[in-house]
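Example: tRNA-specific adenosine deaminase.
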Amino acid sequence: MREAIKEALKAKEKKEVPIGAVVVYQGEIIGRGHNIRETSQDATTHAELLAIKEACQYKGNWRLEECQIFVTLEPCPMCSGGIILARLESVYFGAMDPKAGTAGSLMNLLTDERFNHQPYIESGILEEECGELLRTFFKELRERNKQKKRDKQALIEKEINQ
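Written out as structure tokens, the predicted fold is:
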């Protein structure tokens, strides 16, 4: 999970939502990813999908049956779909996502027995550290947005007073 946190910090440096993921095979990291949705302007460039893509390229196979994924935030529906389709053996994540999580928060997509694959799931790994990354990011984002609004209002008032 520490390596997934390192990936999340890369996203934060780019002013992206700080979520990171790594795929592990036989104790070795074979795929890494962090959110780049704002940078790429591509809704599918979530940390998990980027890590899965890199792992598939490494293995030369779309099946990641003996692999584990470590991610700082509970996977969303899209990422859970990728996890199921890639046949990842297990999912380990840090913080819960009550708004979009599909591994126990909002719904349980990853354990839905109607799918032909259900990975093992473990949550709460370095949960406080993973959650704090997100809380800090969104607090700073709200402050930046408030400042932009204040700056815009000051500019309008300046133009009115001229």
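The longest helix spans residues 127-161.
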